[in-house]
Specification:
The protein is mostly beta strands and 229 residues long. The chain has one domain: Sandwich (Jelly Rolls), CATH 2.60.120. The protein is built from two helices and 17 strands. It has a 17-stranded mixed β-sheet that branches. It is globular and about 40 Å long.
Length: 229
């Protein structure tokens, strides 16, 4: 299945900011960076990362990348992400997209994305278009995806929603268009949705407050988010 088969559009309150760059702000264990067919280099706290870089964490590692607006991406152990697009030449021209190949990713986005701006995370069968929220995406070995929302609202649907940058309505069998109800499922705060390996989304459901009690990666993220407030 091609990238972007599903869209996750996130809506949340905006916080003003001016993103400029991205750099490693926390690292436990080992993680590497490379670009294209170039050599791998070890990441360190303070290392700048940018468009075209692929980042991969090793067993037991945790990585945090922080942007100029204080938004962060965090990777759990044995995770791989490529920064496919990263332009931060001022808020009006901000465009960011990343591809999560496998592993767990946590995103906390603190600034509004408007107009031609973009901040999105893709897996093989899901895309998360961010508008200012806190959520996680797990890209599992069997190609299934879990989206769990801690703050904000997520709309999951087939294709990009009408009005989204680059998006358009998709036709189904016959001449009729896909309606909003057909292409999206709303996932609110403290809810999650699973997307199967063939790209079929399940129904949104609440998750227990203690669902992450035995998940070291989730606890680490929640603690760092709380400390940043």
């Amino acid at each position: 299945m091609k990238w972007g088969a599903f869209v996750v559009a996130l809506l949340a309150p905006a916080l003003a900011a001016q993103p400029k760059t991205a750099q490693v702000s926390a690292l436990e264990g080992r993680a590497q960076r490379w670009r294209g067919n170039g050599p791998r280099t070890e990441l360190r706290v303070g290392t700048s990362v940018g468009q075209g870089d692929t980042l991969e964490t090793q067993q037991g590692a945790r990585l945090e990348v922080r942007f100029g607006d204080s938004s962060v991406l965090r990777l759990g152990p044995r995770a791989k992400v490529q920064l496919a697009e990263a332009h931060f030449g001022g808020a009006a021209r901000r465009r960011f997209s990343a591809r999560l190949f496998f592993g767990k990713l946590w995103a906390k986005v603190t600034s509004v994305i408007q107009g031609e701006q973009k901040f999105q995370i893709e897996t093989e069968n899901a895309v998360a278009g961010v508008r200012g929220t806190t959520f996680r995406m797990d890209a599992n070995e069997d190609k299934s995806v879990l989206v769990r929302v801690y703050d904000g609202t997520v709309a999951v649907g087939t294709g990009a929603p009408p009005g989204a940058p680059g998006g358009e309505r998709r036709e189904v069998e016959g001449p009729r268009e896909v309606t909003r109800e057909q292409w999206e499922k709303l996932v609110g705060r403290q809810m999650q949705i699973s997307i199967s390996a063939d790209g079929t989304p399940g129904e949104p459901e609440e998750f227990s407050p203690d669902v992450d009690k035995d998940d070291p990666f989730a606890r680490w993220n929640l603690e760092r988010d709380a400390a940043a407030k």
